[in-house]
Amino acid sequence: MIILGDSCPVCKSKNIEINLFEYQLPDSIKILIYSFVCKDCLFKTNEIFPLEYKEPVKFQIRINNPEDLRKKIVKSPYTKFYIEEIDIEILPGSIGYFYIYTLEEFLNHILNLLSSLKEEKLNEKIEYLKKVLDGKEKLTIHVEDEKGLAKII
Prior knowledge:
This protein is α+β, with helices and mostly antiparallel strands. It has two helices and ten strands; from the N terminus they run ββββββββααββ. A hairpin with a 4-residue loop joins strand 6 (79-83) and strand 7. The model has no long low-confidence stretch (mean pLDDT 90).
């Protein structure tokens, strides 16, 4: 959790705006949205924190066509992913805090992370993900969340 104090961590200015919003996700839990903006250097950050938990969940997401990439997934710090076709496991906390992604954004994030590692053994996985994003391959993502926060919306 990142909560910034009374000054900007980048330029040390006190000319900042901090907002806290409580929000009820549709058919889900309450969350707290924390927003920080520096009016001088324009540094900004947003964080989402769950205010309640549910029973653990497990489900699969199947990407069969480009329209499926528009679906949104809620990912919490407790969400574990396993991408079957490329044998990649993403452990809780390894890609950040609480996010709401489209599946396309999520896969692009994974693609960027894999590409940044610059390991030749990952090239096949990277190419497969590119084909999924282009609608030429299918993908199965297994999702587990011990706090019951992950879901498709």
